[in-house]
Design brief:
By secondary structure, this protein is mainly alpha-helical. The protein has a single domain, classed as Orthogonal Bundle (Helix Hairpins). The protein is built from 4 helices and 3 strands. A 3-stranded mixed beta sheet has the order 1-2-3, with helices on both faces. Helix 4 links the parallel strand 2 and strand 3. It is rod-shaped. Pfam families: SpoIIIAH (PF12685). Keywords: Membrane, Transmembrane, Transmembrane helix.
Length: 214
C-alpha cells in the first residue's frame, strides 16, 4: 500500500514537472524587452521621419543659398564687364580728346611763330633806318612764309585724302615735321607720306610721327 502511494506521488510530481516545462517553453522569456524593442523601433522611425524633412529643408535652403550665390557671382561678373566697358569707353574718349588737343596746340604754336616772324619782317620793311635791300629781303621773307603756309595746308589736305583722320605739316628750312592721326601705321605708310612731301616741297628731311585716334 505504501509503495503504491509513493508511485502515485512520483507520477504526480513527474506530471507537474512536465506541465511546468511546457509552460516555460511556450511563454516568452522577456515580454517587457519585446515591448521596449517595439517602442524603440517606433521612436527610431519617428526620429527618421522628423530628420528627413529637416534634411530636405536644409537641402532646399542650401540650394536656394547656392542659387543666390550663383546669381550674385553672375551679377558681379556682369558688373565688372559693364565697368570695364565703361572705363574703356572713357579711356578712348580721353585719348581722342588728348590727341585733338595736341593737334590744336601744335597749330596754335605754329601760327603764333609765323605771325611773330611776319610782324618782325613787316617792322623791318616799314622802318626808315634800313636800306632798300633790307626792305626787299624782309618782303621776300614775308612772301616765303605765306607760300610755305599754303604748301603746308595743301599737304595736309593730300595726306588726309589718303584716309587719315588728321594731319599737321610743319616746315622749317630744310626740315619738315609731319604728324598724322591714324588708327594703324606702318613703315610703308610713312614712306608714302615722305614721298608725297618731297614731291610737293622738294628734297627735304622729312620726319613722320603717328598719333593714335583712340
Amino acid at each position: 500500500m505504501l509503495l503504491k502511494k509513493q508511485t502515485v506521488w512520483l507520477l504526480t510530481m513527474l506530471s507537474l514537472v512536465v506541465v511546468l516545462s511546457v509552460y516555460y517553453m511556450t511563454t516568452p522569456e522577456n515580454p517587457q524587452s519585446n515591448v521596449a524593442l517595439v517602442d524603440n523601433e517606433k521612436q527610431n522611425e519617428k526620429k527618421a521621419d522628423d530628420k528627413a524633412p529637416a534634411e530636405d529643408t536644409k537641402q532646399q535652403a542650401d540650394e536656394k543659398s547656392g542659387t543666390k550665390e550663383d546669381s550674385k557671382t553672375e551679377g558681379s561678373a556682369e558688373d565688372v564687364k559693364k565697368e570695364t566697358a565703361k572705363n574703356a569707353k572713357e579711356s578712348a574718349v580721353v585719348s581722342s580728346t588728348d590727341s585733338d588737343e595736341l593737334f590744336t596746340a601744335l597749330r596754335l604754336e605754329l601760327n603764333d611763330e609765323r605771325s611773330q616772324l611776319k610782324e618782325e619782317y613787316q617792322e623791318v620793311a616799314a622802318s626808315k633806318n634800313v636800306t632798300p635791300a633790307e626792305v626787299s629781303k624782309a618782303m621776300d621773307k614775308i612772301d616765303e612764309l605765306s607760300k610755305l603756309g599754303e604748301k603746308e595746308a595743301t599737304l595736309e589736305t593730300l595726306i588726309k585724302a589718303k584716309g587719315y583722320s588728321d594731319a599737321l605739316v610743319r616746315a622749317d628750312g630744310k626740315q619738315v615735321q609731319i604728324t598724322v592721326k591714324t588708327e594703324k601705321h606702318s613703315k610703308t605708310k610713312a614712306n608714302q607720306i615722305i614721298q608725297l612731301v618731297k614731291k610737293e616741297m622738294g628734297p627735304k628731311e622729312v620726319a613722320v610721327e603717328f598719333q593714335p585716334t583712340k
